Amino acid sequence: MLNKVMFFLPSLGGGGAERTVIQLANSFAEQGLNIHLGVCDVTDDKAKLLPEVSPKIQLVNFNCGRVMNSIKPLKMKLKVEQYDCLVATQTHTNIVAGIAKKLAGVNTRLIFREVSTPSKNMKLQGFAKFVLKTLVDWTYPMAQQVICVSKGVETDFREYYAYKKNNLSTIYNPVLDDAYFEKLKAPVIHRFFNSNPLNQTNKVILAVGRLTEAKNFGFLIRSFKALHDQHADTRLIILGEGELRTEFEALVSGLGLKDVVDLPGFDSNPYAYFKYASLFVLSSNWEGLPGVLIQALASKVKVVSTNCPSGPMEILETSKFGLLVECNDQAGLTQAMQQAIFSDYVQYSVADFEAHIQQFHKATVLKQYLNMMESAE
Known about the structure:
Blueprint: E1 4-11, H1 16-30, E2 34-41, E3 58-61, H2 71-81, E4 85-89, H3 91-104, E5 109-114, H4 118-121, H5 126-139, E6 145-148, H6 151-161, E7 168-170, H7 178-183, E8 203-208, H8 217-230, E9 234-239, H9 245-254, E10 261-265, E11 279-282, H10 291-298, E12 303-306, H11 312-315, E13 323-325, H12 330-342, H13 350-357, H14 362-375
Parallel strand pairs: 1-2, 1-4, 2-3, 4-5, 5-6, 6-7, 8-9, 8-11, 9-10, 11-12, 12-13
Helix pairs in contact: 2-3, 8-9, 8-12
């Protein structure tokens, strides 16, 4: 009988991986399970999502900075608590969870979550890559299941690590629930928006994500410049924070777009912007499963995405529910944005759409996780 479960994360920063784990943990706590949330660092920006953690969850702050420093305190916690199941997320966190369980000598079942494509996300070569692969080969077979957030991640993981064990499976993230659809309704004040979302004079393009290499917003800004030269009523908002802010601000300024491109920073409710937007764009170089693309799709805003590894091809079902362009194809992205806003967008039936989007709903995903946590032996 499943009773006590720990979810284990590096931090509670503003990323999609952290938000998904909080959503899973909160949902299981609501169902009456004894849920602990183990984190290594919740200082400053690494505590952004702390307010979203349910008061029914016991927060276990290892306060150890780097994930590798959590091996000893996690081992001790596993011995004391005797968890039925430990669910870890992200490769380095998964490795540490495996080592800590081995050292603790407990019967806790392990479930690892892989949230991104290692061939793109891991920048390791030579000896460093050999060490990582060795650690994966040692610790990952300890897990009853390794859950990949998309079929693309699962395929990429197996190929990148030449992984042989048959404990990989795909479960999509639970990105849609009643609370999400309530968040859509919140009003937003922005200089690009009219007060009435149904009466927009500007054609606003929205993007959401951390200002990092993976999200490739420089490519989006350059592609938008070509679109704006053709359509003066277009505007671009990029919600998010990250280490490339200065670079992107300089690009916006250098292209003469300061009046029509805005980078307002992190917003805890980016979904409220969807109803004001003519288009949502995902410009990433790589993803695991881009939850915000699913959420944009579910909100009925038009979507354009790069066909990056991995997720968009599955989410949009090979361009059935949105437009796909190749990564870094600037002319292609400009043309797709123009087509989506000003020309013929994709057409699909309501029945097909509802059947497709159901697999990303929380109720569907929770049932899959619960079955896996209970049946792991």
